[in-house]
Every structure is written in structure tokens, then in C-alpha cells.
Amino acid sequence: MIVLTGASGGIGKVILPYLLDIDEVIGIFNKTQIQHLGRNNLVCEQLDLENSIEIRAFVNKFKNKFKSSRVIVIHFAAVKIDGLVANYSETDWDKMMSVNLKGNFLLTQALLPIMVNKKWGRIIHISSRGGECGDIGTIAYSTTKTGLIGMSRVLAKEYARFNITSNVLALGHFESGLYSKLSDTLKETLINQIPSKTLGQTADVVRAIKFLIESQCVNGATINIDGGI
Ligand SMILES: NC(=O)c1ccc[n+]([C@@H]2O[C@H](COP(=O)([O-])OP(=O)(O)OC[C@H]3O[C@@H](n4cnc5c(N)ncnc54)[C@H](OP(=O)(O)O)[C@@H]3O)[C@@H](O)[C@H]2O)c1
Q1: Can you give the residue range of the structural domain that contains 33?
Q2: Cα of 177 to ligand 1 centre, how many Å?
Q3: Closest ligand 1 atom to the C-alpha of 77?
């Protein structure tokens, strides 16, 4: 059973059909309804990752489904509010931390007892190469995306004894989603960071997810999918 957050997002909705070829998927959205795709192994579920009560209720609602399957959580949900440090507002900072870090943590924490019980689990976090590089104007985004790498390593060490792995996919620039919302000037700057000057293919993301699901010893790793940035 794959729990995919950000399933309604630019990258999430492109990879969703491929994940459905691997396993049953609970596709999580917040404000944008997911198309059902006519697949009987897809459950679409609204969940606000800023709300800890909703997160607990979500895990409780599906607990029987989770108990009868191996659980994989893939954290694609994120927000990106950019701005220079000098003017960055506390409200925007709190929102970014709340969705990108705390939401990820709380959902993982709520699913861990089920994984521990099964003695198997896969946690996949999504970071960003731009975030890791610390691009100008991305103070909160970069903080959250590098924070996930620390979070993942701690999870890897605390839960390895239960056959639970936690890894990060650090994405470069992809055609869909957050990238497509940027200005033409910023898009040009970002594409020039890629040696091949070619945007990432979501097929590579799916291949990496399959690899992490199947691997036991790959744990606490960060895999760059960025064309060599
Ligand atoms: N696109 C790129 O080039 C790129 C590059 C590097 C890294 N990434 C990473 O890849 C991931 C997906 O990016 P994307 O481009 O697909 O982003 P996107 O199109 O902006 O989608 C963001 C997703 O997060 C969900 N979300 C936001 N707030 C939420 C909340 N409070 N509760 C639950 N869900 C919430 C959105 O749900 P609703 O729409 O339903 O509200 C949406 O499904 C992100 O983690 C991003 O950092 C993307």
C-alpha cells in the first residue's frame, strides 16, 4: 500500500498511474481533487497535512487496510513561498515549516507503529537540489528541503532494526509542478544549472521509487535526480 502525498501536484499526478502499476495507492490531496483514473486500486483522500487531528484520523480510518499490507509512504506534498531573507514574513515561514517539515513528520510518526508491527516499511522524502544549493530567495524552502535530509537520517537509524528504511530523493528541475509556476527568467537560470540543459523526466523518479521499495540496505541515503547539477 503506497501512501502518496502531493498526489494532486504537478509531479504527483504524473507519477500516480505508474505507482498504481506497483501497488494500491492512497493518493492524498488537499485543495485540488485528484482524477480517479478509472483504477480500482486508487483511493483518493483529502487530508490537510497542517492538521495533526486530521492526520491521526486518516491513519485510523485506513488502519485495517494498512495492517493487511506493506506500507510505503512517499512525501511529495510541499509548498514554496519564496522571498529574500530581509523581508521574509513570519507567517510564510510558519506555513512552510508546517507543511514541508511538520506535516511530513506527523504523517510518518502516525504510520510508524503499523510499519513496526509488520517489521517492514519504506519512507521516501522528496527534497530539492535547488533547496540543497541554497538558491537566493528560497530561505524557507531550502531550510525545509535540507531539514528533510536530517529527518530521514534519524528515521533510518532509529527504525533500521524493524526493516524500515528512510531515504530522500533530491530532485533537480522538472517540467511539471513548482517549476512551471516560475518566471521565464528564473526558469532560464535554473535550466542553465543543468549540464545537459534538459529538464528532468518523471520516469526517473518512478524508477528511483521502485529501487527504494525493493532495497533493504539502501537506508539514510539521498539520491540526486538532477541531471548532474
Ligand atoms: N517541480 C519541480 O521541478 C521540483 C523540483 C525539486 C523538488 N520538487 C519537489 O517535488 C515535490 C512535488 O513538487 P510539485 O512540483 O509537484 O509541487 P506542486 O505542483 O506545487 O504540488 C504540491 C502538492 O502539495 C500538496 N499540498 C500542499 N499543501 C498541502 C497541505 N497542507 N496538505 C496536504 N497536501 C498539501 C498540494 O495539494 P493541493 O494542490 O491539493 O492543495 C499538491 O498536491 C515537492 O516536495 C517539491 O519540493 C519539485
Answers
A1: 2-225
A2: 7
A3: 24
